[in-house]
Design goal:
single chain; elongated; mainly alpha; about 70% helix
């Protein structure tokens, strides 16, 4: 999704994934999906992580 070198480190990457999974579970609840386990949980976690990554990109936009 984001080509190039990302200097956020492995700890921040783990934190981003955890926050993304939480955001994804909130999003699943908003659309009424049962994403407590399995494939649906994985899909919503990835979507949540992508949302967090985009927000992080906007906040740290280096020109």
């Amino acid at each position: 999704m984001k080509p190039g070198n990302d200097s956020m480190g492995w700890i921040f990457t783990i934190i981003l994934g955890i926050v993304g999974a939480y955001i994804g579970s909130l999003l699943a609840g908003l659309v009424g999906a049962n994403a407590t386990a399995g494939f649906a949980y994985w899909v919503f976690s990835v979507i949540g992580a992508m949302i967090v990554l985009v927000i992080y990109g906007f906040l740290t936009n280096k020109k």
